[in-house]
Write a structure and sequence with these properties.
This protein has four helices and seven strands; from the N terminus they run ααββαβαββββ. The protein has helices at residues 2-17, 23-42, 69-78, 89-96, and strands at residues 52-54, 57-67, 82-83, 104-106, 112-117, 120-125, 132-138. Strands 1, 2, 3, 4, 5, 6 and 7 form a seven-stranded mixed beta sheet that branches. A hairpin with a 5-residue loop joins strand 4 (104-106) and strand 5 (112-117). Helix 1 (2-17) packs antiparallel against helix 2. 21% of the residues are buried.
Length: 140
């Protein structure tokens, strides 16, 4: 995806620089731009195969592998998402129904985890090097 975006940027710069060149050059660049647009359109906008829709968002719940917060964040980004940031209690309830009785990393800029206490999940700060499962999210 990054390579495609770099190619698209180069093509746009070529188009801007060639504005004073003959129309044959414009035609060649239009062809390149069309090819890049077809490639982008053919590529899936978001690979949701590992994600499950819960409410209006898609979530990936990793219940087997335990990693530190930074690795969890990197794994979510590698799948095109990010560590979950819960917006309200409804999201917490929706996700907690899918979680095993484990602790999970969440949060995009600080080390926060979902911890099972009694029969409910709560959010709390945790040592960033702790080895926990994690939850990723994607809009769609």
């Amino acid at each position: 995806m990054k390579l495609i975006l770099v190619g698209l940027l180069i093509t746009i710069l070529d188009v801007q620089q060639s504005s004073s060149k003959p129309h044959t050059e414009d035609h060649r660049l239009d062809g390149k731009l069309d090819a890049l647009q077809r490639t982008l359109a053919a590529e899936k906008p978001a690979d949701l195969t590992k994600f499950e829709k819960i409410g209006s968002k898609y979530y990936y719940i990793e219940s087997k592998e335990k990693v530190n917060w930074r690795d969890a964040s990197n794994k979510c980004r590698a799948m095109g998402g990010s560590l979950v940031v819960l917006q309200n209690g409804k999201e917490l309830i929706g996700i907690s129904e899918k979680l095993a009785n484990k602790n999970y990393w969440m949060g995009q800029s600080i080390c926060v985890n979902l911890a099972k206490l009694a029969s409910n999940y709560v959010t709390r700060y945790k040592d960033c090097e702790a080895q926990l499962n994690f939850v990723c999210e994607k809009s769609n």
